[in-house]
Amino acid sequence: MENKQKPDKHDTEEIGKLTAQYEEKQKEVSILSILLGNVFLFGVWGYIGIWLWQGSERDTYILDMFYVGHIGLDLIVGLGTAVAFMLFIYIGTSRNLLLFPENKYTQPMRKAASMKFGPLCLGLSSGIPEEWLFRGLLFGFLASVMHPLLAIAVASLIFMGIHIPQYKGHLGIHIYIFIYSIAMCVMFWQLGTLWGPMLAHVVYNVVVFYWVRHGRL
Predict the structure, then answer these.
(1) Are 140 and 64 in contact (CB under 8 A)?
(2) What is the pTM of this model?
(3) Residues 6 or more apart whose Cβ sits within 8 Å of residue 131
(4) Is 117 left (phi over 0), alpha (psi -120 to 50) or beta?
């Protein structure tokens, strides 16, 4: 009979390490796919929506959203808004008024935040496409068929609603997201461009996911 050599302890440990590394890489690829899919999905649906709504005027509408004539003011307002909401959430979490829950929706975000450049990737892949879709399309459309103040309320309720699965059972976060959306809508309404809301959303998300990465949230 053939003598089959059993792998020694060192070989077993090496195999275990390689397997763990492979699984981690697979998770990273999966998370990156989700992030890229988020950008693609929101970007495409946003453009289709604007195309259906604006028709032949879609390009003019899009160019107006990225008008650079007062971009300096737009960016200053956006950055100031981001700082204000970062301070708000910092105080809220410090006093346990706002909690970042642990569930099947937030676990991938925590994992992505722990990756190299994770907070930056999360900030860019959520902040830009979400403002494009929810402020550029949703609020823009609603404001064209109803009073802008009512449009702000409706758009913000919808924005809050899509985040309910992530933060189910945490009323404070739902209220916070509603107020946050109101601020983004008002910024877009008053400035007429997406520069401010996009910068505010990206900077805010980058910092929040940096806190998540380091256990602050």
Answers:
(1) no
(2) 0.83
(3) 184, 188, 194, 197, 198, 201
(4) left
Please report, to the nearest 10 degrees, the dihedral formed by the alpha carbons of residues 176, 181, 183, 189 taken in order: -170
Contacts of 200 (CB under 8 A, 6+ apart): 78, 79, 81, 82, 85, 127, 183, 184, 187
Could you list the pLDDT tens digit for every one of the 217 residues in the chain? 455 555 555 555 555 555 555 455 545 556 667 677 778 888 899 999 999 999 999 999 999 999 999 999 999 999 999 999 999 988 988 887 777 788 888 888 888 888 878 898 889 988 999 999 999 999 999 999 999 999 999 999 999 999 888 888 788 889 999 999 999 999 999 999 999 999 999 999 999 999 988 887 7
